[in-house]
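User: Hi! Is it possible to get a structure for several chains at once, not just one? Here's what I have:
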Amino acid sequence: MKLYNRGMIIAGIVVFLIVATFPFWYGRGKAVSPPDLKLDTPAIQQLKEKLCVETAPYMRANHMKLLAAWRDGAVREGNRSYRTADGRVFQVSLTGTCLECHSNKKQFCDRCHDYAGAKPACWSCHIIPEEVR
Amino acid sequence: MNLIAALIAVLILTLSALGIAFSATLSFLLTAILPYAAFTVFIGGFIYRIVKWAKAPVPFRITTTCGQQTSLPWIKNNPLESPSNVWSVMGRMALELFLFRSLFRNTDVAIVGQRPVYGSAKWLWFFGLLFHWSLLIIVLRHLRFFIEPITPWIKSLSTIDGFFEIGVPTLYLSDVAIVAGLTFLFLRRMTVPRLRYISLVTDYFALLLLLGIVTTGLLMRHFFPADLLHVKNLALGWVTFAPAAPKGVGTVFYIHLSFVFTLLVWFPSSKLMHMGGIFLSPTRNLANDNRMKRHLNPWNAPVKVHTYEEYEEEFRDKMKLAGLPVEKE
Amino acid sequence: MAAVKTPKPDELIAIRYAPPETPWMETPTVFRPGTWSYSGGAKSLTALGLPNPRAWQPPDEDWKLPANWQSIILEGLRERLEKYRSFRLFMDICVRCGACADKCHFYIGSGDPKNMPVLRAELLRSVYRRYFTESGKRFGKLAGARDLTIDVLKEWFYYFYQCTECRRCSVFCPYGIDQAEITTMGRELLSLVGCNINWVMEPVANCFRTGNHLGIQPGGVKDMLEFMADDIEDKTGVHVEVPLNKKGAEILFVTPSGDYFADPGTYTCMGYMMLFHEIGLNYTFSTYASDGGNFGLFTSHEMIKRLNAKIYAEAKRLGVKWILGGECGHMWRVLHQYMDTMNGPADFLQEPVSPITGTRFENARATRIVHIAEFTSDLIRSGKLKLDPSRNDHLRVTYHDSCNPARAMGLFEEPRYIIRHACNHFHEMAEDTIREKTLCCGGGAGLGNDENMEMRMRGGMPRAMAVKQVKEKHGVNRLACMCAIDRATLTSLMDYWVPGVTVMGVHELLANALIMKGEKERTTDLRGEPLEGKAADEAL
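Assistant: Yes, the chains can be modeled jointly so their relative placement is included. Here is the combined structure:
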């Protein structure tokens, strides 16, 4: 097969291939196991029913929205109490409610955020618990 | 009419994606088989098209010159608009690729007071550039789903892109820009009469498909969040050749994927190949050094010419009569 | 065919840019009188050995095509897609962004959407898709494809002969798609089934036989040049030689034959002769290579080569060192971008060095042909010419960049340098209408014939209006240019849109200002028009 300007064309195709297949060769095809979220803090283990504020699937996808709503309600309107759909009542507090159970930020929050490349804004105001202790 | 056909095509795609979402077999197909098929068609098709162009030679050096040539040393040449060496050509190409130099020249014309008046019309350039750059940034940002650990430059890109930290999750500037860009391009095509006149079904389809991808992406980010853990598991599964059916990603994600795969499959056979083609455009990627270096045409075939001997043969008597020298008396 | 009356300027300028109700594929082509050119005559086609010579005219119902015309066209299309990367690429990558649309002077002047470069290209692209792409074969109209019918062929003819291959669209296209390239292919395909225009084919046939488009035979060339030499003597008192077919001359001079055939080109030619005499250049004209112009460019690549071959051949026969080219547009497209590739290498010539200044023309070191504007501006820069620009004080000059030197060479500063030194009143036209954005005269690429007058006036309107603007603002009365086609077509264009402005070549302007050794006091310019301040002497 005769290609004209062969050198440039092939160089271009090679560059295209390298760029387009970046994820394949970057990870060298090694399987990566998804982050193992630790739910075995003492507080959780003491719970009778292992249920977060809302259901787990909802929390997985929407916790950032819930937290943002909590923050806005608490900071702007002083609303410190949250009532779930099934009638349970929680104190609106990241450190007081969330981190009470999920006291293992590194094994719980960070693992998943790092994995998904999400950068929460929580810790620009809140103190990271481990750093205090 | 063409717009309606394109709308119907996108609608059919959406409905099929919905169908896929509710069928276990089909969603396996979409998440485990189609990704490879679509990617292969994209890569293979892209290279096929490039090779097809490369198989045709560039018989003549037909640079379009948009600035002063390199001639006498005291005349200032314009290396970026009329390049005379390979470095200038690269500069010119870089301007075209990264800044859409030629589109920046755009003007519009109107007959005002019985005279054509040329006005500056940079909107097409601006929104065109906005769309292309934001698309690039968005594609790069998506790499966070495909590699683990995520490289710092991708993280920084996302941080810069979400600089203003509006809302939770943060609104990306590139998302706003791409919506603005695509909307402009789409409205322009729909409302400017002469553009509507030249638009083919595929022109609308390309824009609608891209708008569909962007919309579903934004929906997932801001309104119907998909579980990113599972999204990433799926994407990593693809690149490690161990795709696993995702859980908890939602219907919108399926539509998003269907659109993206459609785009990948359609890309090589569509006008979107301008992405590869622009590199090969002979009016831009050749130096205006025509009289400095001989350009070779591989098929420069002999033609029938009229030689001087034939000429003199016919006119010899007349030439002699006029006192003009001749070769043969 | 009766002569068609061109509408008045007031009627012509009422242009509507609204596209028709029907989609373009369903809008039939109407061969309206005044907007198309007569068909290429059978005699010319036969002389050149081109296919299907016959008597026919575009408005005819039956074009008398060969029975297998479709397969001839499609085979020709396939061949060209394989031979020209430009063509295949330009067929594939257009996104129909419309940036080119209102850049075409024919669209600006006519409002016909098929004169938008994008749509002109789609006329051919739609057929390409139908027969050469999978999506077009499968999805037809949905993919923008359509069958090659006789109506499509007629549409091609009408619109590919409403494009002057000026390349303005390619300046604005984000991918550099060049409609000139597509028009060329379209015309090549049409030519395969014998559809040409006479204003191209007859000059081509002449040029092939006699060496120039006008069909002037050797004695005629000599007579005309000698007549001009006499005229120069009348005006200046200086006798200039007319070297012709001179072996051993240092330089072969080629120029478009328009320059020695008709006003105002002749004044430009007199300008060259006076300049060469004054600097004592050892040069020669040639009767065999008596036309640097090349209407082959408006026919096919093959024809370019056939007509161009004589130039190097004659340079070799006469044993000159290098070649100098006169003021012409399309001629320079060929000399700059095609000649060396087609008929080179010019290894029998020497790298051009000005014998007067010793300047080496580095930019012409391979092709070994120098543009006269490069040559002359070097002379002026080196102080070799004595110029009295006040002799052009009766002129308010503006300059029209001809399409090809502008967009295929990048020749912008050299002519301006000459003009600034040769006259005192030079006014540029509006920024959007000069240099790489220059607008066409409306009659290039073989369209400068009389039967096409309405379309010429439409296509030339944007240029004319830019001239009108400087006429009103600065009192411009003279339009300088560096193209033989321009000198002919702009003259009609000015008469129609901007009466009172006449057209000249740059070297006519120079020759007016050129102080020659042994000249008498000049009271008139080369045209016999009185010089400013000398008018009183001239009366009676």
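The interface with chain C takes residues 4 of chain A (CB under 8 Å). Chain A has one domain: 35-132.

User: Great, thank you!
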